[in-house]
Amino acid sequence: MRSVEAEQIAQRFIQCYLRRDLDGIGELLAQPLFWIGAEKSDVFYSFEDVCAHMRQLHGDPKVQLLLENMQVESFSSGRDTTTVLAFLRLGVEAESGASMLTVRMTLQLRSLPQGWRICGIHSSVPYFPPQDASAVQVTRRQLEELRLRDALTGIYNMEGFVAAADQLRRRWPQNTYVFLKFGINGFRYINRTSGFVVGDQVLRHIAGHLQASCSEQETCGRVEKDIFAAMLVFRGKADMARRMEQIRAALVDEELRRQLSVEINFTAGLYLPPNLQGEEIKDMLDKALVAQQSLDSSRAVSEYVYYAPEMSARWYADSQLMAKAMSAIESGAFKLYIQPQVELATGSPAAGEALVRWQQPDGSLIMPGAFIPLFEHSEFILEFDFYMLDLLCRHLRRWLNEGRPVLPISINQSRRHLAHSRYLEDFCAVVDKYRIPHELIVFELTESTFVEYNDEVYVMARRLHEMGFLLAIDDFGTGYASLNMLSMLSADILKIDRSLAIDCEKNRRSVVILQKVVEMAHETKMIAVCEGIETAGQLDCVRQLGCDVVQGFYYARPMPAEDFAGQYLAPCAVSH
């Protein structure tokens, strides 16, 4: 029995293999695995060995492997396993000449909770007798065309787009052009909830519709995983606004749109070069990217913005911050702040949330909104989170030693950690190093993380409770979470975003929505925490709606950890 999904996973693996995408390969491999290459010595049993093999195999940039044709067929070998045979016809371009090569790959796949994953690979290269050598010769023109095309979508890749854009500006010098670069919001969520097969369909649909929208004087390409670029004739901002809406409305076909659980949106940057012939194509794309990155891609809307010179200044300032981040850890410049949470029934402090401020040499403070998003774009957030966890545990240990009545403290953790299998063990090791009772740590993840890493979070929630930690959903009301997800996920605390309470004094609709969220939290055995309470009117509103705990400036602003201990953890703390 054939498995279409297994065949599509195999095709995706081969595409990642040929473009040297180690991250993409890693997402498709099971553990443990085996990989037998064409040579007798090519036997691998771990992803790390595969990575080393790939770097060696594809280490010579002068040798290009270009996919001309691929045929795959699967054969079921059990309820949870299947075998896929793949025959590849590759164009090989090297300094010595161009040729064609046929490769056979046998892939063993296993059905796991997250879908089919590859657990075994055997690749071989058929032997061609000398008299057949002419049959595998191809022209450089054919190989060049393959090299400039994206294997998944068929439109230009980055190199092809740059070449095509350069030709257009030479052929149509009288045109005014704008460079567009956009990414798909929450694309990883689409892959995780709908599967890589549907994710690939989305990319192909976007590519096809984007290409169809281009005239002969325009071009487009898929330049990264879910990043697309276009060079479009510019006829004014009003006309461009109309085109951007057309692109948004036609990203995917209606039938595919109905299959997806979320709307497809993009975040885009536009660069209008003052001198089209005076800049490199990639430099103009980079400016479109700077504009794109100035927007918040976590929002569930399509947005675009034109590049302005001050954006580059902002990008440079952000780069400077990132360069100083490591030394800031070493010098202790990241300061632990805590904002108290107050129980409405008693008016007493019930818990706190760990926050951070970056202290500068002159004593001024940089707020987290200026640097946490930067850290989230890099692996540095992983080290930073563990540093802040260690810092919190050090304070908790000292307070426990001093005999203070320590309250549970919640700490935010990046979604990036969920991609690492040993994350919880490492987290627990830090807490246990300081002998902190697990019930004093509230593990806090944003709502969007619960959606993006759906399967992983369900497993993690169970393991957290087995370890004795509490789990909180932060910023509820700002993402895509479904009621069904909340009913299945055993979180302990629901932190309701301030946006739902900010106008509850005046807006009846806000009151109704907030009331239903609080009721839902209680019915699913969660503590309802309302964030961002700043006025007495807001406090009265959430009190009447049955909220359990509040957090906000009305009671207290975030304060240095020692001030929090002195005010709220004294042996005879006074209710606020």
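The record above closes out task 2.4. Task 2.5 opens with a second protein, given below.
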Amino acid sequence: MSRLGLAGRLILFIALVMLLVQSMALVAYLVDRHRNFPGSHLTPGADQIEATVALFDGATPAERQLLLRALSGSDLRLRYETEPPEIPPHTEIPMPRLTEKLAGYSRVLADRNVQLSAPGYSPVQWLPGLQAVVSPARIRVSVDLSDGSWLAMQRRQSPGLTLGGMPLGMISAPLATLLAAVAMIVVWWETRPLRRMAQAVKTFGRDLVPHEVPMPRAPDLKSLVVAFNDMQNRIACADRNRNDMLAALSHDVRTPLTRLTLRLRKLEPDLQAAAARDIGQIERVADAAFQLTQSELPGLIDVFDLREMLQALAAEADLVFVDKGPDVPALGYGNRQLLERAVANLIDNALKYGSRARVILIPGTESLTVAVEDDGPGIPAADRDRVLQPFQRGEVARTDTISGNGLGLALAGRIISRHGGQLELGSSPAGGLRAAFSLDAGRPCQEEEKAEECGSKCWSPCASKDPSG
């Protein structure tokens, strides 16, 4: 149910309501029929045939003529014959299967010779039979009597369709359910462009690389897809221009800073040291801005062992590494260099404000959770969203002597966001900061799987949910 779209849910809901109402009406009809006619068959046609055969079997020849006149009317045609009836070729078609079912359905007819035929001839043998089942008035039933004569019965055609003698309206709900199923298949087929577009939006939001959506045939959807493809191209172009501008700015600012450093040598030592610190701060900000820009450029196509990467980073910083699931695979999918930079920024931030820190890995079948905890002063809940923005620092960082440019957490958050996760800041058990994020768990393709069938999801969650359905 959760995989159905809005139109599919509405169609299914209406069909289920119709099925419930019709089922209640059918149950009421059957209960009333059983109460008034105990022991009768489900369909009235078999009861009428049994009763008519029993009347004619126990009647004399004179009484049979009276029965013919009494029972033949506007809705029933009876014919009394002394010889077995013949089925004219090319005008009627025998129905042996239905004959066997009728003989097995009725105990009265089980020991008699019964012939069923339907008028009309078709090279498709099952077509007249199907028409006869839908409209029993097309069926001619011939039964032999005890004296060797034959009684032929056929209902006259009446307005409306029946199925086994019952009005077709009694089974309209199952037919409506079948039509609803067909409608849902059609709706699912026609909304494929929307699912493709949803997948393209998800992918484009990660790497800002346009993914052209194929053109549908529906005019209204075609205009939507054209607008979406054009929007992708324009956003990608604007993003490239922004990255080019920031990269050029970060590069070009180094030239005047280098000339300014050479000129500062003529100043007094105290002024020269202070100016050098300011220039170093400007260079660090320019480098961080360049790194922030570069985080949007690499592709997310690496497959790597996330556990090994975290162990190496923790060992390099002389931190404790805690693995909550050492027996669970921890395959990462994306860009290893970017994720290393993100975790390294979290570790640097933890060591900058705390005396102890640890790196935690919580692997799972659906997702991998990474956390860096420290025992520093932490960040107040009101400031946690703000410090994830570029060039924003916490109150402790602004009032303390600790150097920084306010881009470490922002860069880590942007890299994690590109990988489909979200950096969340909280409180650690030691009272400091807990920076954690979760990524989709990857798994390698099985040997029998084809890479083109799974695409990139062979290493990200090939077994997890897919929004396109």
